Amino acid sequence: LSAAVGALVGAVLGSLDSCSTEVQNVTSTVVSVTPLAPSILLDSSGSMNWGFTNVVTTPSRWDNATDALPILVNALDSSMNECGFEEKFSISLVRWAAATNVVSVLDQTTNITLSSTAIDVLAAYTPAGGTYLTGGLCECYNQLEAGAQAGANKLCILIADGVQSGETFGTNCDAVVSGS
């Protein structure tokens, strides 16, 4: 999982042109940074209690995922702010296990120090239930629409251990989340 997180960070950062330089006249340079606003979604279904042998064990997939979160958050935050700009990175953290069991542990914020407490809350949770992707993805959409900085690159990062179970995909997030 650590290698996957590292690859994800590399892919995301490699695809973003966050620090672009334009030459203005002959003597001045303007640097612009496009904010990045990811919402990180964690599958909190029962199988996340398993190790890699599909039995409950320690460390579990949940342990590995929550242990990797600070690395992911800090790497994205430092890379977005390395050009000398502040608050060019915001984040939200969401866990889900069913269409109606979606919990936003941290709403979209540029105060990255809040992520540490939110990650601790996630780490203390015991995963249970099925893998219902739609509810989590709908919450990601809601987080990015309601709280992301204007003009930010919006990104959902889904961390899950498998495919959906027991749901059909809908196109109306309100109906999916309410269970209708």
Summarize the structure.
By secondary structure, the protein is an alpha/beta fold. Helix content is 37%, strand content 24%. The protein has five helices and six strands.
Task: Provide an overview of this structure.
With 180 residues, the chain is α/β, with parallel strands linked by helices. The chain is 37% helix and 24% strand. The protein contains five helices and six strands, in the order αβββαββααβα. The chain has helices at 2-15, 61-81, 114-124, 133-147, 173-178, and strands spanning 19-24, 28-33, 36-43, 91-98, 101-109, 153-159. The strands form two sheets. A four-stranded mixed β-sheet has the order 5-4-3-6, with helices on both faces. The protein has a two-stranded antiparallel sheet with strand order 1-2. β3, α2 and β4 form a beta-alpha-beta unit. α1 runs parallel beside α2 and α2 (61-81) packs antiparallel against α3 (114-124). The mean pLDDT is 77.
Outline the fold blueprint:
Layout: H1 2-15, E1 19-24, E2 28-33, E3 36-43, H2 61-81, E4 91-98, E5 101-109, H3 114-124, H4 133-147, E6 153-159, H5 173-178
How does the major sheet shape up? 4 strands, mixed
State the end-to-end distance.
Answer: 35 Å
Name the poorly predicted regions. none
Helix content: 25-40%
Q: Can you count the helices?
A: 5
Q: How much strand content do the residues show? A: 15-25%
Principal-axis shape equals: globular
SS elements, strand count: 6
Mean model confidence by pLDDT: 77
H/E element order: HEEEHEEHHEH
Secondary structural class = alpha/beta
